[in-house]
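Notes from the 1:1 (GR / supervisor)

We went over the backlog. Supervisor wanted to see one worked example end to end before approving the batch request, so GR pasted a single chain during the call. The sequence is below; no edits were made to it. Supervisor asked that the structure be written out right there so they could see what the output format looks like.
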Amino acid sequence: FLRGVGNQKESKLLRLAFGRALPRDISPNDIKLYLKNRDGKTRANREIALLSDMYTKGIEDSVIPIMPNPCKLCSYRNKEVSRDRYVEDHEFAAVWNHAPPVVQILMDILYVTGMRPSDALQITIAQANAPELITRANKTGKRHRHPITGELREIFDRALDIRSARKDTRLNIE
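Structure output shown during the call:
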């Protein structure tokens, strides 16, 4: 259930905050105080979301008795501000110039297509050889189509040259 390093870190912070409190002893006010007093406001929201998921899973699996989820009863959430930072061309070039060829290729694919890194890492050799790259974004489920011509074709050709010695069907090189 606690897959990923992020969830494991969050669960440790929750344990520090709530100690050995029983699920029935945590109130919506405790959740509100946690959210208000935690320094990292966005992280606090994520931690309480994890705690809420733990309540839900615990009830579903009959590990804790059926009870109201205090996280859902607390209407308070910290305000979140979207990141809106544009990476300038000189910054991109500085990283690109010091990156290994594989990372350069990934950076180029992301730059040309606007894909998320996790989506670009799933591109297969078959997709790179097709006339059009058709992908589905993991985050949104939305389909994207990119004609593989010009700059994108050149990027995929570089990637395929690096991959030619390997037998993996994914385009990425790990």
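Supervisor's comment: The two ends are 26 Å apart (CA to CA).
Batch request approved.
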